[in-house]
Amino acid sequence: MYGLDKGEKATMFKIIKEMLPPDVRVARDAQDLLVECCVEFINLVSSESNEVCSRGDKRTISPEHVLQALKDLGFGEYIDEVYAAYEQHKLETMDSPKGGKWSGVEMTEEEALAEQQRMFAEARARMNNGMNIQKPSDSDKSVES
Length: 145
Prior knowledge:
disordered C terminus, mainly alpha, Histone, subunit A
């Protein structure tokens, strides 16, 4: 299933279970299918976000690029809910004692881009069942999806 580890699968299964009434059970193969659909949706939105970013001659995908990608893909009716979830996430990570994974970390745009590309490469490798991670070249103007 796209190289997701047990913890990632467990998290996805937990989300699925929490979204359903307590008396509803989901077969394991249906859970797997739902997770695969989620991964494909993320790939689609990531790819389109990258296209939006590239059209704007930007090198780093921003939340605005993701929201525009949702609109371009025909998911405009979800933008308000997605934006609200994003704002809530920002509030929660600011208020947390740790301040989130990147709290206090100052990066240049180039460093942030390199880190973003590295993380996307790792995610692609996991999805491709652990095939080797390709390091993005300096000539890349946008994040590959």
